[in-house]
Design goal:
single chain, 197 residues, mainly alpha, Arc Repressor Mutant, subunit A, 2 domains, 10 helices, globular
Length: 197
């Protein structure tokens, strides 16, 4: 990365790390944007270059994963496997690229915030819908699915998201600090792969 790109990545990391720490310790609603900007020595203008809202920041670890999923899905080589299996494998591959141990700790913090703040859950649903639409467009372009009339890609994506949500909730609820391999194993178990080619 160039120096400018490294500085931008550093600013994003500081905002996410500090924001998740403040939200977890004090409660999401108790932390104002002014306080977050003061704690990170950034302006509101700088904050909004990176995030649309506090909710957007709180979900950044999960958004980061799904942005990676879209990149990997676009690059995935077509294989003669059921579509749901292809999607599951792509998600597992994206999970394996998450930076450790930072991502794991931040994803667990995001999960706690989702459970505690309804506005974060609602924001997550909007992001999920946008990611599903982008995934459908990729599948139509790469694999020739007729997006308006063929329900299979949407059904498979909905199953994948539901399986990931279940796996993430189980992972976050485990008494010991679960590692990334455990989350990947839970995703694998959760996805039942019928032949939906």
């Amino acid at each position: 990365m160039s120096l400018r790109e490294r500085k931008k990545a550093h600013t994003r990391e500081v905002l996410v790390g500090t924001g998740l720490d403040l939200f977890t310790r004090r409660g999401f609603g108790a932390v104002t944007l002014d306080e977050l900007c003061a704690a990170t020595d950034t302006s509101k203008r700088t904050f909004f270059r990176y995030f649309a809202s506090k909710e957007d920041l709180a979900l950044e670890p999960l958004h980061f994963l799904w942005r990676r999923f879209l990149i990997d899905l676009e690059a995935a080589e077509p294989r003669d496997v059921p579509l749901l299996e292809l999607l599951r494998d792509t998600l597992e591959q994206a999970l394996r690229t998450m930076p450790q141990p930072e991502w794991q700790a931040q994803a667990l913090a995001s999960q706690q915030l989702i459970e505690a703040a309804p506005s974060i859950r609602a924001h997550g649903l909007e992001f999920c819908d946008n990611t599903t639409r982008q995934s459908l467009a990729l599948l139509a372009a790469r694999y020739g699915f007729d997006q308006p009339t063929d329900p299979r890609p949407r059904l498979c994506l909905n199953l994948l998201v539901a399986a990931f949500d279940w796996a993430r909730e189980q992972w976050a609820a485990e008494p010991a600090a679960a590692d990334l391999d455990r989350l990947i194993a839970l995703v694998h178990v959760a996805v039942v792969s019928p032949d939906l080619r």
